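USER: Write out one fold?

ASSISTANT:
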Amino acid sequence: MIFRFLGAQWLAACFVGLVSFGVSVLIARTLGPELFGAYAIAIAAGAVVAILIDGGFGKLLQRERAMASPELTGFMPLLPGLAYGHALLMLAGLCLAAMVFLPKQALTVVAALLFFGAAVLNQFGLALMRGDGRLVRDAGWQVGNRSLSAVCVLLVLWWGASQPWQMLMAQFVGAAAFGFFVARYLRVLPSFKFSAHVYKAVLPFAWIDLACVLYFRADMVLFQFLGVAKLEVGKYGVAYRLLEAVILLALPLGLILFRRFRLGSTEPRRVVRQMWSTILVAAFLGGSLVLLAWAFGEPLVQWAYGASYAVPVSC
């Protein structure tokens, strides 16, 4: 059963990774290094503020659907609606703040916020699926979500889009359309009530997510404030896209471990023993990919993104 779930999730991760890589190649070649640098900064900043939009509800939904905590049992029917309500309020507030405080970059920033906001709402639906253990269906939904957003990007490229905000809005449209389907399927309606009890439970997850995102994304955001040329940021961005492809392969194992540990929280050592074979296989595949990237990374970047991205970064 574990390998069936892991196989489905890895197939989905490979598909999402390949499509995302292909989309990033098309966007990078269309925008060029300088505009792609602006696009990469917007993506990195969007990933950071997405933590505020999520608020830790994604992890909480996944945990509570796997096995409800005694102190949250009475809130279980309300949690999806509270998560959607929190995300929509935060998204509206962040978009308003961007228009007030960043008027020159407002179009790109708002487009990035809308895209990541829609992605967060989609993740809430996937979190419910993962908590229920429906990882095969979850994998199918990941494929559908990525396919729809990629089609939207291809359409705007075909129509002649040439600005970062246009690429981000296209992905928002695809994510929002899929998110509407998810919400209808799960019959979730946003709730704008405030519950201190729920926020007390969700706060640790928000801190963990924030720490992880800052670790992986802070460099791209800092480039904006340190005055690094967009040209150099664009080159750095394409290398980071390759790193993200490797990270994607590790995520399915994390999903399975999360639910397994939650269900077996009374016997964690037994759960670890059962998962060793899966962990070893994943470690072998990850190590192999690192070696391949080390050996062929530079020619791969030059072949995929073009000669202008292959120049060594000077900063």
In short: The longest helix spans residues 2-54.
